[in-house]
Amino acid sequence: MSMELALQTYIAESRGLLQEMEDALLSLERSPSDQHLIDALFRAAHTIKGSAGLFGLDAIVDFTHVVENVLDRLREGKLSIGKPLIGIMLTCADHMASLIDSVADRDGVVETSQVEEGQRLLEQLQPYLDETALNESHSTHTELTEENRAGITCWKVCVQFGQDVLRNGMDPLSFIRYLGSIGQIVDIQVDAEQLPAFEQMDPESCYLSMKMEIAGIEDEKTIEDAFEFVRDDCKLSIEPLHTNLASPKELPGELAGLDASGPKSAPVQATISDEPAVSRTIDSDDPVADESAGNDPRRKTSANKPTRFIRVNAEKLDELINLVGELVIAGASGALLARQFGNTALQEASAAINNYIEHIREGALGLRMVEIGETFKRFQRVVRDVSQELGKDITLEIRGADTELDKTVVEQIGDPLTHLVRNAIDHGIEPEEVRRARGKPAQGVVMLNAYHDSGNIVIEVSDDGGGLNAEKIRKKALERGIIKPTDALSDREIYNLIFEAGFSTAESVTNLSGRGVGMDVVRRNIEALRGSVDLDSEEGVGTTVRVRLPLTLAIIDGFLVSVGESSYVVPLDAVLECMEISSEIKEAGSERSYFNLRGEVLPFMRLREQFGILGKPGRRENIVVVHSGEHKLGLVVDELLGEFQTVIKPLGKIFSNVKGISGSTILGSGDVALILDVPSLVALAIEGERHHESLHLSAERH
Amino acid sequence: MFSTHIENGTCFANAGAELTIYSAAEDAVQLRQVIQAHPNIVFNLSAVEEIDTAGLQLLMQAKRTIEANGHRPRFASASPAIQEIVQLLKLHDFFIFEDHVNVEQSLPEATP
């Protein structure tokens, strides 16, 4: 690994660690006595400092060192954490992030403003440090007290460095230094036996190996990681040496892991024995860990648990997914041919292949999918900062954090969500006195919720605030000429007017929102992702903004239908049922746009008319009942062709104005099928009906 | 880079500011020559500001070679950088520093 790559890894990891620090700090605000959180904080700061040292990033080392000292005192119980210190620590984490940014963007050139900020923060930290800590040099580490030692595992680490290590710009000493900074080197021996005679020695080769006993590091992975930059270039062995109560559990865990894998899965076994940390991952999922995770179940993964990650270039992933997409298409084509030939053996083989393709498809897509929880968690900070600024007491509730969606969508949803959350805090939640007067708890709640619905992901931002005042919005909309006085609008429609350009409902303009960047921008951003946004509100009770986003890029399960010569794919999640069209509807012709489904009146839409397909409808037409949210719609098609796995290929710009279509796909036969955008079709139908109704009404009036 | 001077039959090898991979090749050549030429060598490490594994390895090699020749190398005046790695790698027994090597003293094959 070249130094540049290693540095990139460091930058990425440090950003992750800073995020962990921020999360831990925010959780500490709620449970200030949680020792796990303090430990996590300390470890994160420690790792950032230690690795910065490896790269000679002195600005980061110097600053983080002081932060770490304060955290160390917290850890030892010499200090207790409170709101003011958490506030300072959060800004310290911000400062560290800005220092890391300067490494990433400007080759580590620190600007004077940053230096000043650093100084200011160090002064703020001063009261939390005692004199001894100030005089400590960087290399000093906490001596282990007896009670600490009891809970600590010792490791025997043998490392033989490859001969080229020095030439590759690595200095084994720095790894030892780093280990010394995160744990305690109880004993170390430098072995020079491999040194050849002076005449034969190449002074630029490394001949040394080291044996050491290290205490104070909880898991093997941390030690292994210390050698990450020379992993390929050294022989490393780590074994637990002196273990405490916890370790007997580890060994059976490892054995159990081996037993469970059985003799069949030899390769898996090899991995496990190679990296015992893997088996401990299983071990750490035990109830004890769950219990300690307490009110924040997600911490389990973010703390020191050995979750293994590999960084992969996003392009490679895209390429893989593209190929899997092609594979799905080719597989479908194979299956089609097999069916046409009617050869049983061939059909069986093709069925097996398609089965595997499905697994690969799921796996490949899973790679791109990330849980939205990470994004949601970032809002803890937003809520904290904004509510403090406004002097409101607000907590953020998160639900559906494990809902997965495409990484590209996650990346782009951040800004609109931030805006919605800020809006909820600023305009949604009432000032404390008003809340009390209304008999609500003083503390306001903003909730983020995510779930899957009809092949879409729905993200809700809700608050238990004052809700919207329909009359006020109506008045304003009239003022601004957004609606006409004659427009008859439901409350819900009025609420959704706030997404129109140039709308701000707050009476006073705060510095947070109301700067003209309004909800219309949010809507535009979300529509750019081919999503939609709508809003529900009840005055005095609260507001919910619902963002609906497609799981783009994905391969979805579709339902293939045909109209004339054209094929269409309906996302399977949206399909409720299919049935043959009744003669009643058929005879009613194009006049009628609704039908009776077991007593329920449903609108329907003839795709033939919608997409202007020529030719006579087939003798037997079918109706596919689809839904989007709570609305249902019947789609009249000619033929039902069954389930079909579909790779969504985005449509070109030319089609961006075509409503009702979200993408295209290639069928096994090579034909192109269009993917129906069910939510927009449903919206069209509702609009059409309203149009119909108003025509009707006006006709009656005349 | 080592600079050497000889006083009373003892060769003083004064290490420069850096004992690192960058100078390792040159240092090795120099050290070999010094070791071949002089049985009694005092390594003065007071000026070393930076030492890495390559530098350490050379010092170890030098010590080992001298000992193999039946002599005892001596180390004087550890700089802070040297002290740091001695501390880090627990090399106290390996490099025994004599802070005040008296030039006037005769240098016997001292008792350990």
Structure description:
The complex is a heterodimer of chains A (702) and B (112). By secondary structure, chain A is of the alpha+beta class. Chain A has 5 domains: 3-135, Four Helix Bundle (Hemerythrin (Met), subunit A), CATH 1.20.120.160; 146-302, ACT domain (Alpha-Beta Plaits, 2-Layer Sandwich), CATH 3.30.70.260; 314-370; 376-550, 2-Layer Sandwich (Heat Shock Protein 90); 555-701, SH3 type barrels, CATH 2.30.30. Chain A contains 25 helices and 21 strands. In chain A, the strands form 5 sheets. Chain A has a 5-stranded mixed beta sheet, with helices on one face. The longest helix of chain A is centred in the first third of the chain and has 28 residues, at 3-30. The N and C termini of chain A lie far apart (81 Å). Mean pLDDT of chain A is 76; it is low at 132-151, 243-305 and 506-516. Chain B is an alpha/beta fold. Chain B has a single domain (2-98), classed as STAS domain (Transcription Regulator spoIIAA), CATH 3.30.750.24. In chain B, 38% of the residues lie in helices and 22% in strands. Chain B has helices spanning 21-37, 53-68, 80-89, and strands at 2-7, 10-15, 18-19, 41-44, 50-51, 74-76, 97-98. In chain B, strands 1-2-4-6-7 form a 5-stranded mixed beta sheet, covered by helices on one side. The longest helix of chain B has 17 residues, at 21-37. Chain B is globular, with a radius of gyration of 13 Å. Residues 102-112 of chain B have low confidence and may be disordered. The interface between A and B is medium-sized, with 28 and 27 residues.
